[in-house]
Amino acid sequence: MLLKGQGQGLLRIIANNMTKKNFSSATAPALEIEPKKDVEVPTKISRINPLTHPDYFGVGKMFTVRDLMEARVHFGHKDGSLNDRMKPYLFGSRLNHTIFNLDITAEHLKRALNVTAHTALQGGLILFFCRSSINAHTVEKTAKECGEFAHTRYWRGGTFTNSKIQFKAITRLPDLCIFLNTLNNVMLQHTAVRDAAKMNIPSIGIVDSNCSPDLITYLVPGNDDSPASIELYCSLFKEAILRGKAKRKELLQEIENMEKEQKDS
Amino acid sequence: MISIIHKTVQSNILRKSLLNSYAVNRAFCKNIENSNVEEKSEEDKKISGFAKAFEKFSKPHIEEEISKEPDLPFATLFKNSKFVELGDPEGKIVVGKIFHVVEDDLYIDFGWKFHCVCTRPAKNGQAYVRGTRVKLRIKDLELSSRFLGSAKDLTLLEADCHILGILSSPAIPKTKTPTL
């Protein structure tokens, strides 16, 4: 993607990204908008490149550390089930109960929400995972409300890696996997964590003190057992996705209007 | 002759690829020097002395203003939290709320990471419905222990508590005083 001029170049990047699809056999042609040289670039087009903005969707203001505490995000399991690789994310351990450092968690959560919103902006397919039976319905409802997908049941081994044969057609795999719970119902790491890494799909995961943070791209250290925490995460991810989608709709409308103006002129 | 042409072609390709990568880098990894996202704060009026005291004490005491504290670090919030106030959880008494009932099993949430599951007591059994507030004594906050041969603990994802009595129940009309 070459940046030719500032105004129309930035929009072309966005337009190119929006029409790009992963893993589909028919690739849609990228939108190429070349306004005539003597026509002025209309000032109403947003000149900010979403990728260079530090917080384009304002995800940093969506929650506070106090909100996380009230949702019980700082509670971890006991010391005996601690995964050594989770030690950097802990505030400490009080009477054998591990406590997460929510200042660190807040940073990670902001990053994860930013990635989610940008993925939604580019028209990415997002898949939620949660193998905790108490919270499965919350996650499925969240996915439905933001127009994305959820998988909270038994995961067949080859769903990502052997998709062409299992679905009997070339399948579009998700562009982002969000794990509300990285463990499955037998306390082993969810197969999809490893498989997403194999298929180069970025993953966001809520890692508790007994989970392994190794294979997850954007991890969020925190509690994954309480319904209150899961509800908070779901609401935040849903808000991020909806903001991304709204922005996408706005930008596509702007491009459409620009095209119409050029056709008229 | 051919080798010279090859070299120029190569250098052209190299230059183009560098330009492309530079453009890509500019798009993705640009350092933002002037990111003016924050709004400018309004200039505070400076009142001092009697005027300040008069304003402070003549205003009604609003609780919302107290809660609008600046974002405190987690360490401070945690130090003042109920969990730390609890101390050693074993034997402590807490208030829980029943959120699910399966015949004689009551699933009670008391503000901790896990819920606890208790059997319906014989006394006042019919009053234990969803929404009942109960008094609990904590026995263990997480039922997890190391079994022989395993490197890690096995958790049941549950706390262990004992029901002491009802504080309020939707099944009991409010005129009656609850019996413990």
TrEMBL record, chain A:
Signal peptide: none
Record GO terms (molecular function): structural constituent of ribosome
UniProt-listed Pfam families: Ribosomal_S2 (PF00318)
Protein transport is among the record's keywords: no
GO annotation (BP), single: translation
Keyword set includes DNA repair: no
Main location: mitochondrion
Keywords assigned: Mitochondrion, Ribonucleoprotein, Ribosomal protein
Cellular compartments annotated: Mitochondrion
Matching InterPro entries: Ribosomal_uS2, Ribosomal_uS2_bac/mit/plastid, Ribosomal_uS2_CS, Ribosomal_uS2_flav_dom_sf
GO terms under cellular component: mitochondrial inner membrane; mitochondrial small ribosomal subunit
Entry similarity comment: Belongs to the universal ribosomal protein uS2 family.
Main function: Required for mitoribosome formation and stability, and mitochondrial translation.
Protein name, entry field: Small ribosomal subunit protein uS2m
Organism for this UniProt entry: Polypedilum vanderplanki
TrEMBL record, chain B:
InterPro entries for the chain: Ribosomal_bS1m (IPR019375)
GO terms for cellular component: mitochondrial small ribosomal subunit
Protein name: Mitochondrial ribosomal protein S28
